[in-house]
Amino acid sequence: MAMEYAGAPHPTPAAGLREDSGPESDNTFSPESSSPSTLQVNNTIINGGEKTQPSSWDATKSKREQGWRKIVRSFTPSWFSVNMGTGITSILLHNLPYNGDWLYYISVIIFVLNVVLFIVFFLLSVARYSLYPKIWGVMIRHPAQSLFLGTFPMGLATIINMIVFVCVPAWGYPAVQLAWGLWWIDMVVSLACCLYVPFAIMYLHESALEKMTAAWLLPIVSTIVAAATGGIVAEVLPNPQHALWTVIASYILWGTGVPFAMVVLVMYFQRLTLHHLPPVEVAVSVFLPLGPLGQGGFGIMQLGKVAMAVFPQTQTLQESSTRSGDILYVVGWMVATIMWGFAMVWMFFAVASVSRRRFPFNMGWWGFTFPLGVFTASTTQMGRELPSRFFDVFGTITSVSVTLLWLVVAYKTIEGAVKGNLWVAPDLANLVETPRKKKVDVEVGVVGN
């Protein structure tokens, strides 16, 4: 769309002047098409007594959209889905039912890789919104890109989990403090995403049911992931009172996310039945419903397990003939089993959907790894709690499948990043940019030499 420079009303142009609409750009958007005309003489734009050089503007814009600037400017929140997929892979390999020392070391290597990626992605995000502050406002108002804000706290949660699994046994209490501090940050960010983004969908956008995708779940699932992570962190806290605070906060997060996700799943099922499967570009999003069901089941089991130990120590819900922690543990297992069964329904829908057609690679492919990964985590947790050979074997098979899938998606992501195919930011289409203007002593309506 043409870039227009709005200014004061123009007098009738002198002879030799012609109208020009300015340079076009895919990353700019001008909401006003009725602005006053722009006048140009010898590549000089005269607008209300001001003169600009479009050639300089074009050169600046071209320079900005090349090299590292292009990467920074196009670095969308969806890249944190890489952390989600990488993190859940390291967790699954660490907790594999049939494990070995070599798998432990592989999980640690992937964990370190995930930490490095998260730091790099975080710095790129800070650079993006520092160098181009207008992009932040455009991004959080974008109907699709804002949904991926939830990938940031979920990616961080996978790192917190591995800190508990790997660093706490090695480093002791300092690692516990680190994990607990990061979890509180993760909880606040998750809650902000869960509350703001759905409200933005209601308030800022005109949403049609046929345009809905399962990506609506992303900001909501972030609180469910934070709740499950809280259960893992609470298990290693040496202070029972701190563990109790964490467990209660995690139950609240679980209650914030799981019922909300169920509402969205009902809407999404209606969208699928009335308007068919989503377009091929977002076909992999049909796996996203596995996220709240799998992680919700794992989280409620883990919280019940910790409550069974913490409640008696803190004399929470004073017991009479029945231990309150035991009740929460049993109810948690029952709810998790129901959610696991419901997840199998969505697993069938997802596999049947993607097996019927080919679809191009994009960052949405990371939607394969994390939902399948948290479903697998719920499966292996059920195998430990029952115990059950079926869940152990099934969890091992799905863990290996997720790892192989992660390798494929990681390779395609590296290939696309090197070729430049993935450095695309849809939110920039709504960005309004104004070229720099250099004021000169030019009389309105008079062409200077």
UniProtKB/TrEMBL annotation:
InterPro entries: SLAC1/Mae1/Ssu1/TehA (IPR004695), Sulfite_efflux_TDT (IPR051629), Voltage-dep_anion_channel_sf (IPR038665). One of its GO terms (cellular component) is plasma membrane. Residues 1-42 are annotated as: Disordered. GO terms for molecular function: sulfite transmembrane transporter activity. Keywords: Cell membrane, Membrane, Transmembrane, Transmembrane helix, Transport. The keyword Transport applies. The chain crosses the membrane at residues 71-96, 102-126, 147-171, 183-204, 216-237, 243-268, 280-301, 327-351, 363-381, 393-411. The keyword Cell cycle does not apply. It is a multi-pass membrane protein. Residues 24-42 have a biased composition (Polar residues). It comes from the Eukaryota. It is found in: Cell membrane. Belongs to the tellurite-resistance/dicarboxylate transporter (TDT) family. Sulphite efflux pump required for the secretion of sulphite as a reducing agent. In the presence of sulphite, cystine in keratin is directly cleaved to cysteine and S-sulphocysteine, and thereby, reduced proteins become accessible to hydrolysis by a variety of secreted endo- and exoproteases. Excretion of sulphite mediated by an efflux pump also represents a detoxification pathway for dermatophytes during infection of the epidermal stratum corneum, hair and nails, which are rich in cysteine. This is Sulfite efflux pump SSU1. It comes from Hymenoscyphus fraxineus.
